[in-house]
Structures are given as C-alpha cells and as structure tokens.
Amino acid sequence: HHSPRALTATSATRFASFPTPVNSVHIQTTMSEHPVFDPATRVILSEGNYTRWAAQTKAAIRKLGAWDHIELATPAPAAVTASSSAEDRREVREWNKNQGLALGVMLESISPANFRLVDGLNAKKTWDLLKSTHAGQDAHTQFKHLQTLLVVRQQPKDTLTMFHNNVQLAVDQLLASLPSNFTTANMADLIGAFVC
Fold first, then answer.
1. The whole model's pTM is what?
2. pLDDT class of 14 with cuts at 50, 70, 90
3. How far apart are CA 34 and CA 6, in angstroms?
4. Helix (H), strand (E) at residue 166
5. Torsion over CA of 45, 180, 4 and 60, rounded to 10 degrees?
6. Rg from Cα positions in the chain
7. CA 182, CA 125: separation in Å to the nearest integer?
C-alpha cells in the first residue's frame, strides 16, 4: 500500500521521470511545493472506489493544467534535433512537463498491482486502462478478467516473450480488479464461485 503522503515535486519527479519517445528527454515535473492531494483525503485506487478516485484524480490533473494529455491524448511534438528552433524545444519541454504531471498524479494514487498494470504507458493509455479495469469493478468484471486469463494461449507465431507478456497482462488486470487484501488462497474460492 502507498502511505498517504502528499504529491510533491519530488515524488512526482520520481514517478514521472522516464525516457520518452521524444528524443529520450527525461520528464521533469515542475510542480509547486504545494501538495496536489491532501494526504488525509487522498483516494488510493482499489476495488469499488473508481468513481471517487477518478473524480479526485481528474480534478488534480485539471488543476495542474495537464488534462488535455488524457482527454485529447495530446500527441508528442516532433523530436528535437540539433537544428530545432527554440520554440520547438520549448514545445517539447512543455509537453514532457504536462505528460509527467498527468502521469505523476495517477501513479501517486494507485496500488502496486495497478502500477505494474500501467508501468511504461503514457498518461492517456494509463487513464484508459485503469478505467477499463476498474470502472465496472464487480463480480462481472472480475469474471471477465478471469476468463481472459483462462483463455490465453500461445499462438504458433507467438514468441515465448509475447506469450508471457499476454499472460502477465491478463494476470495484472485480474489482480487490479480484486480487493487489495485478496490472497492466492482466495483464488480457488473465486474460480469455484464462477465455475459452479
């Protein structure tokens, strides 16, 4: 579990500093030292609280002026080259900053299972995957994720790595839809409930 701490420039930079397709510039957030979330009221995404989490997270991302990276899927600007203008360089820095802000807010308010699910994705893909995983977090959604896991097969053209990635994605989606206190011992009961 994440401890309820405020999202600050330091913690957002830790989560949002990764190589991007835009000439491998590292995203460096420049959030003010004022927390985006009140630690006492911050919602960590878990079973059954997607609506509350989404409302709080959307408001925080809007407050930072980065919601377009999710709502409009703001595309990355052209890569910076030696001949790029100052305006092009500024545009890339601004895009990276806003991508990092949007992603940092989301990553600071999700569980480790959800983090594994979205690790390496951009802000738009992260939001969409969390929404599709949690928006209907009920027995039907859990069963859908379980079915997906149970029907994963290695196709003749799939490499072992491709097959492993497909299995891992199905497992991560299922785990993200289950309660945070869910254990492997509960898995037999879950499968039994859906099979019987």
1. 0.57
2. very low
3. 9
4. helix 160-177
5. 0
6. 19
7. 26
